[in-house]
Amino acid sequence: ICSQVCNFNNTYTLKIHFHITHLFALLANKGKVWSCCPEKWKSFSSSCYFFSTDAKSWNESQENCSRMEAHLVVINSKEEQDFLTQYMDKKSAYFVGLTDPEGQGHWQWVDQTPYNQSATFWHPGEPSHSDEHCVIVNHRPTSLQWGWNDAPCEKQLSVCEMMKIYL
Ligand SMILES: [Ca+2]
Question: For the C-type lectin domain, which residue ranges apply (predicted)?
């Protein structure tokens, strides 16, 4: 149902089919709210995620998310990170919405979520350099772990996050 309603290149037939299916679903599930993600976005909890396929600077990546009514991903839990890393390439790195603009260890999430030391997933030895202002998620073959690394803000893949759409 979600892939149909969020597909903007939809055909009329599919729309009609959706309306009928949705109507029956509503009648059967009185009071339940439908939520979904746009096509090509992944759904987890109350958010939708988009994995970019081209490398851009952190600023360009955030602007790209913003054009889609989203922001660079804010990781709030291990569960959320584990969900995201399933879709990541172990040979790539992905910008998240966390930066230290002044290089003084004042880490800031793009959506103003307070930086909570107890919900951080830095690789051992990270953050490492005060001139590395942007955070990537990557996989380390040495530890076989996914984790965060502070890195230069240039050219990486990225992940966008938005709230699910409620119908
Ligand atoms: Ca680093």
Answer: 44-157
